[in-house]
UniProtKB/TrEMBL annotation:
Molecular function via GO: aspartic-type endopeptidase activity; DNA binding; DNA-directed DNA polymerase activity; metal ion binding; RNA binding; RNA-directed DNA polymerase activity
Annotated InterPro entries: Chromo-like_dom_sf, Chromo/chromo_shadow_dom, Chromo_domain, Integrase_cat-core, Integrase_H2C2, Retrovirus_Pol_polyprotein, RNaseH-like_sf, RNaseH_sf
Residue ranges of domain Chromo in the record: 441-489
GO BP, sorted A to Z: chromatin remodeling; DNA integration; DNA recombination; proteolysis
PROSITE patterns, sorted: CHROMO_2, INTEGRASE
PANTHER family per the UniProt record, alphabetical: PROTEIN CBG26694 (PTHR37984), PROTEIN NYNRIN-LIKE (PTHR37984:SF5)
Domain Integrase catalytic, first and last residues per copy: 140-301
GO cellular component: nucleus
Keywords: Aspartyl protease, Coiled coil, DNA integration, DNA recombination, DNA-binding, DNA-directed DNA polymerase, Hydrolase, Magnesium, Metal-binding, Nucleotidyltransferase, Protease, RNA-binding, RNA-directed DNA polymerase, Transferase
Coiled-coil segments: 320-347
Source organism of the structure: Rhizoctonia solani
Protein name as catalogued: Uncharacterized protein
Amino acid sequence: MIPESHFEAFSAHMDSSLLDQIKEATQEDPSLDTVLLAVSDPKSMPHSVAQKFKDYTIQKGLLLHQGRIVVPDEPEITRQLLSHFHDSPASGHQGRAQTLELISRYYYWPAMKFQVNCYVESCEICQRSKGHVHNYALNLLSVPAGPWDISYDFIVKFPKCKGYDSVLLVVDRFLKMMHLVPCKETATAEDVAQMFLEHVWKLHGTPKRTVSDRGTTFNSKFLKALYKSLQITPSFSTAYHPQSDGQTEIMNQWLEAYLRPFINRRQSDWVDWLPLAGFAHNNARSKATGKLPFEIVYGRSPVISPLLEPTGLPIADDRAKQLAETIQEVQASIKRAQERYKQADTGIPPPKFCTGDKVWLLASNITLQRPNNKLDHKHYGPVPVIERVGSHAYCLALPETMKIHDVFHVSLLSAFKQDTEFDCTFIPLPPVITAEGEEEYEVDKFVDWAAEDRIWKYRVRWKGYALHEDRWEPAKDLQHCKDKLRNFFANYPDVLAANNPIPANARKLKRGKMVKQLSKSKTACFVTLQALTLVATS
C-alpha cells in the first residue's frame, strides 16, 4: 500500500484552502493592484492602459490570465505548487520542461520558468535517483506512419512484490503512450499474450506493427504464430543490443528513475506505483512529439484537480479534423527529434571541483544494503570534496563506516546543485543535549530491519538529516519510539508475518531472507517477534 505521506503535496493542490490562500494573497499583493483595478473597473483608467490587461479576468474571486490562475508573490504558495507539480506521484519528478508545462496548464506568474528551473535543478531526490545522461548516438528505427506502432520489452530482476518480479512495458512509438503490466520473468508466451489482451488490446485494438527484442518470451514460436494470425510483422532489434530500438530502453530507464524516490527502502511496494507511473508519463509532454499522449488519444489532458474546471470537449467534426492535423504534426516532430539525436555532441569536458564543494558519487560500485540495485539510488551523497588528486580524480570526505578508498575519478562525480530559491535543501538539525550532557538525535522513522550478531536492529532515519546518515541501531535503544514502531510494522507486515522466534542461525541475515528463515525455524534464540509486537503495541 502506498503511504499517505506521498500524497500530502497532491492533497494541498486539491484542497480548497490553497485557493483561499491565493485569493487572500492576491488582494494583499501590491504588484497586482493595477491589474485588479483594470479588470474590476476598466473605465477608471485610459483605454490604452486597460487594453494591456485584456487577458485578465476574475472568476469566483480568483484572478485569471488567459484562463489560468494568477499566483501572487507569496513564496509559500509558490513552493506548495512547485512541490505538487514536481514531487507528487502523479507528477513523478519530471524534468524542467515537463514540470513547467504541467504547472502552466493551471497557473501563471511572471517568474514561473526561472523558479521552476531552480526548483527542479536543485531537487535533491532527482540528483540522487537519476542516472548519468550520456549523449550516445542511437540506432533509430524508421518514423512510424501513425498511431499504434508499438514496441515491447521486459524490465526484469525486480525484487519480489505480490508474486511479480518483472514489468511488461508496451509503448506506442507514435503516440508515446505507455502501458505497464506487472508480470513474472518466467512468463510463458501464453501468459504474455493474455496480459496483452487484458491490459492493452482491449483499449487500443490490434497494433499495426511491433518492435521487440529477441528474448525467450517474444521469440517463442507461439507468439510468432499469434503475430501471424493477427497480421503483425515483427521487427526485431539487433542481437545483444537492447538499446538498438532506442525508445524502449529510454522508457526502461524512465520507469526505474520514477520508482526510486517513492518505493520503500525494502523495495517491496513497487507494483503499487505502476499505475501512477503510467499516468505521470502519459500526462507529460513528449519531447519528440511536443504533445501529451493523453492529449493525442483523448483530445484533452486529464483532470487532476476537481477544483480546476476543465475546458469543454470538442465536437465530433472538429475532433476528427484536429486528430488528422495532430498526426501530421507528430510525424514531423518525431523526424525533427531524430535529427537532433543524430547531432548529439559527446565532447563535453569533465567538470572541475574545488575543496569544500559538495558532489554526488555514482553508486554503481558501492553496496548500499538494499535488496535490488535496479531500484536503488544512483548517486551517493552529497559529500564534500577534500582535495584534487592529479588531473582527473578527487578525494572525498566519506563517512568512516563506508570503509572504501576515498579517491574517485571525475567520471564518477557530479556537482550537487544547491537550492537557493526556495530553501528546500536538507539542513541538519543540532542534536538535543540531555541533562546528563549527552547528545540525543530525534528519530524521524524506521526504514529497515535485520538481525545481526544475534541482535535485532532497525535502520533509523534521523529527523533533519539526509538518507546517507541513516544508521543501524539495536532495538533495546529504541523503546521510546513506540509510535514510530507501530507505523513501521504497519508498513512492513511481513516483519511479524509468522510470529515465530528468530532462528538461532540468524547471524548476519540478509534483508528479504528473514521471513523465509523465520517460517522454517523451530528453535528459539534471544527474542521473539511476539515480544517485538508487544513493544510496538504497548
